């Protein structure tokens, strides 16, 4: 561990919560350099939906490298890119009746968001973009302006502009439809909201604490966008690629975004890769206007194409994810009822599930206790109050049960020492 203390920047975050040196990984397991095995309910923060070192992808990748396939290709046409585009069109877009142009951006989620916001602004000739409370879209300046979290925003060093924040679904309580507010302010020339180019939204806010927008709210949001001529952007970087049970997280809502961002699990192997999907008429880019050296990660194209063929050629995988998600939801509900003193709640959709422990200190202690028992699990939300279960979608039923058992043991252990839970303070028995 000495070398990390010596020269790695203070900016480290996950490494602080899980302080060991990882060496090897297979599907839902990781091993540290001392041979200790951990179940991984973090899964690269949603990047390893198909598990660590998925053997199908590994085989294709090794063959491709062995045959001297193109590894880096800027935005040159390559066989690997053609194969990815063909698979994406035939297995993902066409069966869903979706007609979109694919833009390869720099390989991070934040770069795809930057590109999406640029397109919207340029096409509409307006600067302002509507964003939501607790939204997370990345930490480069444009995306950071759309991100809500103060910890991240405070690091910007310049003013963050060009966005206007509105309350997300249920932010003002279950009974209030916040899209009505958006509709009203957009209709009022004196509301103080300059006419926006677009709305950007996550269907399930991952970093924001697994806040799930209802299908009805998403449909209403789309309707308001159409009514006031705003582009509708869905950031599906964390909730997409199967996490919700469908390839796109918004399929259940039956909406049709104008622009979609994808990254994280798109490559399937943890290889950096991001795209923007846009309606053909929005593709008004001039050559190279949004460029980047690493737009052509051909190794990622190979694994992404394999993932699409193997997991998305029929409904089998989607059904499995939904069934496991249902099991997770039930188990978490039982845990909440047993240990939560009426304060804990479950949240999530598909295999994007978590427990709101209403207090960050408590959730942090649960994550630490789980790690000591061999489970890697992180927290999210404004105060890190939500314990977030983001295991690989390919996890076996046995491993899933085992992971949830460990989580339950950790919660039981931490909660035995708790006298009273308040959002702002937990009263512990001993300390
Ligand atoms: C919804 C969403 N958008 C964008 C991003 C930013 O992606 P990246 O960290 O790859 O820049 C994230 C990362 O967590 C995310 O969850």
CATH superfamily of the largest domain, by name, is Type I PLP-dependent aspartate aminotransferase-like (Major domain)
CATH class of the largest domain: Alpha Beta
Biggest beta sheet attributes: 7 strands, mixed
In terms of structural class, how would the helical and strand content be classed?
Answer: alpha/beta
Mean pLDDT: 96
- Radius of gyration, in angstroms, nearest whole number: 22 Å
- Strands of the widest sheet, in order across it, are 4-12-11-10-7-5-6
Bound compounds: pyridoxal-5'-phosphate
- Stated plainly, the CATH topology of the largest domain is called Aspartate Aminotransferase, domain 2
* CATH 2nd-level architecture of the largest domain: 3-Layer(aba) Sandwich
Low-confidence stretches: none
β content, as a range?
15-25%
Number of strands: 19
Any chance you could write out the topology, listing elements then pairs?
Layout: H1 2-7, H2 14-17, E1 22-26, E2 29-32, E3 37-40, H3 43-46, H4 55-66, H5 79-93, E4 101-104, H6 109-124, E5 129-132, H7 141-146, H8 150-153, E6 163-166, H9 178-187, E7 198-201, E8 204-205, E9 211-212, H10 215-227, E10 231-235, E11 259-262, E12 275-278, H11 298-311, H12 316-339, E13 345-349, E14 352-356, H13 360-372, E15 375-376, E16 378-380, E17 386-389, H14 397-416, E18 418-421, E19 426-428
Parallel strand pairs: 3-15, 5-6, 5-7, 7-10, 10-11
Antiparallel strand pairs: 1-2, 2-3, 4-12, 8-9, 11-12, 13-14, 14-17, 16-17, 18-19
The structure holds pyridoxal-5'-phosphate (PLP).
Pyridoxal-5'-phosphate (PLP) binds at residues 45, 108-110, 113, 136-138, 202, 206-207, 235, 237-238, 263.
